[in-house]
């Protein structure tokens, strides 16, 4: 930590890092419960990844508007508590030999709604905590922490699954959200009052305001398209790779944990380099080349075989992908804050999260269907091609900072001084 970001940012950093650490330990825990406890096949695991995301996204549609006009920290704490209760139910039912696929669907739905809520509130609150010239540094520190805990979490989670089963792994994940809520509660900086709703009874217009702003802003709309396609490819590949590694290649859970965790060190390196590359080459150019650099690394995965050489290919491809993503993500996060109007931040982040979660399940389900019809290798090859299709959305027209903001942003900035 450092760079003058202040103690309250550090508390937010610890909250995000703690919950991410628990999630990293529990990475793939719900699919592992389905595979190891309920003996689900590839199609069922893909459906488990897809259907709850879609249902959760639909239930999250009003989240952005609801969060925008409320204090952000209480919302973040409530989302953490909700995630704890949902995830803690799984080890309990495993212990009672009562766990079922419908329960796993329900837990995933609740977790999705809570995640969208937390993300919308935290995105808006971060902007209030951090000055504009420190946003890239703040996003880089959050990104570095994210990749670092994801590097260590899955191997530890794999060891926990091997030693004590997926139930204990999910319990660790659940407890992390309690710690996250306590860190959020400890933030002392007075939270600025939320924007006032423009008149009573305007829930309907508020629901679409974030979408209208996002899609009406050319640069944000193109970046959103890139995020949807890239995220769809990576998320569709994830459940397929779990089945591919554990069932077809015969890797053990601890080996799977290593293959998921160690490449995250590439993300740590990328996020550390992001502000330095941005200063050297410019944020837009760096954003484009990092986004391009994420895309080709799923292509070799269908050709991977069992044994050490196959593991080496997995490690190399995933490390390169996450290195580029580690550069891209903090620059993108800072850029989105810069070009979004302050009183629209929660609604834009909420619309962004919901939009992805509405689209991604369709691709995940399609990947499962292709796997059921043509095999897991063909399905992974198809999502690798989908990843390449995200590149054209990065070709937005460069502009000087401040010229590509949405209508009304400049006048708003002139009319009032907004901290961060």
What this model shows, in words?
The chain is mainly alpha-helical and 420 residues long. The chain is 76% helix and 0% strand. It is built from 17 helices and no strands. Helix 3 (42-59) packs across helix 6 and helix 5 (72-95) packs antiparallel against helix 8 (166-185). The model is unreliable at 199-203 and 397-420 (pLDDT under 50).
Q: Characterize the largest beta sheet: strand count, sense, and whether it forms a barrel.
A: none
DSSP summary, beta strand count:
0
Low-confidence stretches: 199-203, 397-420
Order of helices and strands: HHHHHHHHHHHHHHHHH
SS-based class? mainly alpha
Please count the helical segments: 17
Radius of gyration: 21 Å
Mean pLDDT: 78
How much β-strand is present in the residues? under 5%
Q: How would you concisely characterize the structure shown here?
A:
By secondary structure, the protein is mainly alpha-helical. Helices cover 76% and strands 0% of the residues. Helix 7 packs antiparallel against helix 8 (166-185).
């Amino acid at each position: 930590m450092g760079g003058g970001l202040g103690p309250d940012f550090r508390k937010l950093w610890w909250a995000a890092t703690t919950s991410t650490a628990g999630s990293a330990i529990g990475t793939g825990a719900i699919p592992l419960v389905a595979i190891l406890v309920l003996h689900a096949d590839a199609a069922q695991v893909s459906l488990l990844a897809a259907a709850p995301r879609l249902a959760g996204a639909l239930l999250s549609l009003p989240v952005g508007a609801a969060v925008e006009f409320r204090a952000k920290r209480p919302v973040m704490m409530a989302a953490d508590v909700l995630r704890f209760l949902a995830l803690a139910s799984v080890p309990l039912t495993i212990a009672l030999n009562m766990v079922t696929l419908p329960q796993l669907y329900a837990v995933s739905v609740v977790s999705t709604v809570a995640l969208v809520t937390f993300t919308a509130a935290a995105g808006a609150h971060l902007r209030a905590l951090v000055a504009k010239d420190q946003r890239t540094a703040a996003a880089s520190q959050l990104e570095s922490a994210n990749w670092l805990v994801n590097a260590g979490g899955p191997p530890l989670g794999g060891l926990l699954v091997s030693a004590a089963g997926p139930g204990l792994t999910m319990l660790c994940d659940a407890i992390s959200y309690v710690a996250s809520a306590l860190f959020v509660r400890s933030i002392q900086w007075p939270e600025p009052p939320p924007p006032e709703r423009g008149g009573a009874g305007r829930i309907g217009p508020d629901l679409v305001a974030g979408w209208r702003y996002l899609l009406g802003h050319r640069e944000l709309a193109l970046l959103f398209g890139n995020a949807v396609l890239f995220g769809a490819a990576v998320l569709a590949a994830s459940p397929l790779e779990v089945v591919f590694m554990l069932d077809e290649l015969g890797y053990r859970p601890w080996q799977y944990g290593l293959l998921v965790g160690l490449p995250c060190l590439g993300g740590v390196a990328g996020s550390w380099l992001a502000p330095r590359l941005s200063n050297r080459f410019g944020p837009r150019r760096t954003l484009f080349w990092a986004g391009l650099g994420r895309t080709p690394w799923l292509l070799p995965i269908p050709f991977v075989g069992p044994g050490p050489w196959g593991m080496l290919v997995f490690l190399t491809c995933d490390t390169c992908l996450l290195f580029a993503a580690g550069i891209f993500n903090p620059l993108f996060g800072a850029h989105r804050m810069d070009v979004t109007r302050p009183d629209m931040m929660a609604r834009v982040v909420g619309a962004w999260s919901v939009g992805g979660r509405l689209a991604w399940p369709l691709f995940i389900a399609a990947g499962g269907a292709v796997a059921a019809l043509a095999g897991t290798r063909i399905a992974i090859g198809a999502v690798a091609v989908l990843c390449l299709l995200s590149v054209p959305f990065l070709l937005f027209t460069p502009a000087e900072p401040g010229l590509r903001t949405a209508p009304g942003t400049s006048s708003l900035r002139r009319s009032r001084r907004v901290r961060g």
